[in-house]
Amino acid sequence: MAALSPNRQTPAGSALHLLTRLPILALALAMVVTPALPARAQISLTTAVDLALHSNPRVQGAQADVTKARAQLSEMHDTYIPAITAGAALGQAYGYLPSPPTLFTVNAGSVVFSASQGFYIRSARAGLNAAQLALQDMRETVALDTALAFVAVGHDQQREQVIRQQAGFADTLVTIVQERVDAGQDTQIGLTQARLTAAQLRLGTLRAEDDTANDREHLARLMGIPADALRVDDDFPATPVPLDEPSAPTQGYANPAVASLFANAEAKQQQAKGDARFRFWPQVTSVVNYSRYATFTNSFKDLENIYKGNNGQTLLTSNETAFGVQISLPFFDAARSARARQTSADAAKALHDAQNAQIDALDGQTRARHTIAELKDQADVAAFEQQLAQQQLDVLLVQLQSGTADPNSPPMTPKDEQKARIDERDKYLGVIDAAFQLRQAEIQLLRQTGKLLDWLNSAATARPATGTSLQHGLPTSPSPQH
Questions:
Q1: What value does the mean pLDDT of the chain take?
Q2: In 3-state terms, what secondary structure has residue 472?
Q3: Max Cα distance, the chain (Å)
Q4: How far is CA 108 from each of CA 82, 85, 88, 291, rounded to the nearest angstrom?
Q5: Crossing angle (nearest 10°) for helices 452-461 and 45-55
Q6: Are the C-beta atoms of 243 and 55 separated by less than 8 Å?
Q7: How far is residue 233's CA from residue 476's CA, in Å, rounded to a whole number?
């Protein structure tokens, strides 16, 4: 059987640090749901994640698993603590009985020595470690869902704003083209094209509003607050994701989920060792008994006459006490041997599953880092395209204001201005989408490495990013000139 890695990852204390800010969370929640405040209050990312972790049923379910695992470990230890039972049997007995009826009996007993029990205790301790790591992984999962929903709402709000600007430019374009058609300077085809563009952008505005509403409701459900009271903060903390990390960690496991699988495999291995160690291994238990006989029964009186001594006094008393140890030595148990083989196979499979999960997690992290590198380049391309469109728009505005243009080219008109404005806003939508994809990939990588909550904890005390860099959040929409 393959041995487990000695490097055992324990739950990060920083992941549980979020619970220490519950008073702040209660204050934030009260601010959100207070009717006297505006309909939508600004919510930061860390506040959103704190609220989600506090109320999410998946986290609460994982916490219940930890409580159960802790109780199982206590159960394994408590086998060495004597179990005490007491009982009573009232009634009358007639005739001869080998033992007289008892008024009440008290029994106590516990395990003194068992070769398997030590392995069972280590198995329960590894199971508790696995449950704690699973809780940490579930907290990371909920934090991921909340962070992605938060980013999606911010992205939707920016897209909605930009598309509304485009729709405004398109309406202006329709008015200009209508005036040109009336003056005989344009065609009906040009007017139809302008109206089509305006209709498409109105439809785009409705879709953007729907996307914003859907993502806002999803985020509100994760946080456990009304959707009408939610508006995300425009600032987003930076995510410094290293892209040059080694392909395999020098110690520990890829993330808490993988660490939990290895801890679970260790628990099964210890269970299998305990099940296998039974043949020719003695088990010692302590036995204590106290009985109070029913002296009023005929059976007790008959026994008194039988056990009278030579002096005529009875040797039978109303109280009986017994204590000692019981030693059992198993020689052959086919069913227990089969069970030991079964648990050993389960342990081997659990270990191999954990090893495969480690490989898959490391492969996923490598792919995510490469994806982030590509998305950064795509974001740069989108930014340059938007800058070029903005510069061309600036040149066009200068030509319209000064009346200077290339004499060999057609003169610039207000119609060209509105088209340029729509095109610049379209390029800026590409900037927003590229930044959104980059942000999603960075958060996914932090989740895959098990560092998302650590980053959120550090971001809670650090100054948030200004939002002007593609690598540090979604870009801030520049105010278009009118």
A1: 81
A2: helix
A3: 145
A4: 6, 6, 15, 12
A5: 130
A6: no
A7: 12
Structure tokens at 424: 């610049």
CA dihedral sign, ordered 379, 383, 388, 393: positive
Kindly list the domain boundaries of the chain, sorted by start residue.
Answer: 13-80+126-276+338-472, 81-114+283-328
CA 182 to chain CA mean position, Å: 62
Class of domain 13-80+126-276+338-472: mainly alpha
**Residues with Cβ < 8 Å from 106, sequence gap 6 or more?**
84, 85, 86, 289, 290, 291
Q: How many residues does the chain have?
A: 482
pLDDT digits (tens, 9 = 90+) for 395-422: 888 888 776 656 566 667 888 889 999 9
Q: In this predicted structure, what is the pLDDT of residue 10?
A: 43
Q: Using CA atoms, how far apart are residues 480 and 164, in angstroms rounded to an integer?
A: 12
List alpha helices for 97-252, DSSP H: 117-182, 188-223
pLDDT in tens, 53-89: 998 999 999 999 999 999 999 999 998 988 999 888 7
Strands 283-293 and 102-114: antiparallel
253-275: pLDDT as tens digits: 889 999 999 999 999 999 999 98
Measured CA to CA in angstroms, residue 218 lies from 94, 149, 404, 481 at distances of 76, 7, 53, 35
Alpha-carbon 246 to chain mean position: 25
For the cut 80, the answer to whether the pLDDT of residue 152 exceeds it is yes
Please count the CA atoms within 13 angstroms of the CA of 93 that sit on its side-chain side. Answer: 21
Could you tell me which residues are beta bridge partners of residue 308? 314
Which DSSP letter does residue 212 get? Answer: H
Contacts of 330 (CB under 8 A, 6+ apart): 278, 279, 280, 281, 283, 336
Mean pLDDT along residues 423-436:
93
Q: What percent of the chain has pLDDT over 70?
A: 78
Residue 114 phi/psi, 5° resolution? -150, 125
Alpha-carbon torsion (253, 254, 256, 257), positive or negative: negative
Task: Report d(CA 26, CA 43) in Å as an integer.
Answer: 13
Q: How far is CA 18 from CA 50, 53, 221, 240, in A?
A: 7, 8, 20, 21
